[in-house]
TrEMBL record:
A Pfam entry, by short name: DUF538
Organism of origin: Citrus sinensis (Sweet orange)
Designated name of the protein: Uncharacterized protein
Domain of life assignment: Eukaryota
Amino acid sequence: LLPLANVVEVGYVESTGYVWIVQQTKVEHLFKMIGKLVRYDTEISAYIEKKKIKKLKGVKAKELMLWPAVSEATVDDPPTGKIHLKGLAGISKTFPVEAFAAGQ
């Protein structure tokens, strides 16, 4: 889900689930299986909990000519093989989990 490069700092606060990642440069990655281009800023942060990433900052997915921010990612419990991504504008998209596996 986060194909990053040249990471210089990673942190995690166990009591709150807050996580942050700092990398030297922005990264763009094409998830070929779903044809989505995603941009990762130099600073990425979020709150993580079981099967969910909330308040995600620093990640944008190209949609037509725009780059809306992705603010949340959730997988179903029990597992269905789907991941649900939500943007700040409330727009949601569902994709197969394997589209975001390492090497994709």
